[in-house]
Design goal:
The radius of gyration is 23 Å and the shape is elongated. The chain has one helix and eight strands. The longest helix has 11 residues, at 9-19. A hairpin with a 2-residue loop joins β4 and β5 (63-70). It starts with 8 loop residues before the first helix and ends in a 23-residue tail after the last strand. The strands form two sheets. The chain has a four-stranded mixed sheet. The protein is mainly beta.
């Protein structure tokens, strides 16, 4: 369904810690899980603290792109930040989907900081039985 290994993931994580939050032109990666559940693939992204209106999901051909932005919370003028460890900025992940998935019927839900996409397997890709009929004779096509 998608690329199973990402040899640069640890390098990206280290770079994020050194260079600060992601921007729309250089977003940080977001952790995810992907698994098959019955006749659909499920992809879950961890993006806590992101509002629903800050999530953008696009599908172009077989490329799925998920972008999200965690913005700083509004604070009063007299608040002085003592410690800030939660990453802010833009997050993004791209997945190459197999042709056997139905990208027209993707469902997206966001609950408790987890964005869950359910991607059904296309009907043409599901296993099916072919019945063998008993013919009454041959037919020829002449031309």
């Amino acid at each position: 369904m998608l690329m199973r290994t990402d040899p640069f993931r640890e390098l990206d994580r280290l770079a994020q810690q050194l260079m600060g939050p992601g921007t729309w032109s250089r977003p940080s990666p977001m952790p995810m899980d992907a698994y098959r559940e019955g006749d659909q693939y499920v992809v879950a992204f961890d993006i806590p603290g992101v509002t629903v209106d800050a999530i953008d999901i696009d599908v172009e051909r077989n490329m799925l792109t998920v972008k999200a932005e965690r913005r700083p919370a509004a604070k009063a003028d007299d608040v002085q930040m003592e410690l800030s460890e939660r990453p802010l900025g833009a997050f993004s992940r791209q997945l190459v989907l197999a042709d056997t998935l139905d990208t027209e019927h993707i469902q997206a839900d966001y609950e408790a900081g987890v964005l869950t996409l359910r991607i059904p397997i296309a009907e043409r890709a599901k296993p099916r039985k072919i019945t063998v009929g008993v013919g009454s004779g041959r037919k020829e096509i002449s031309g």
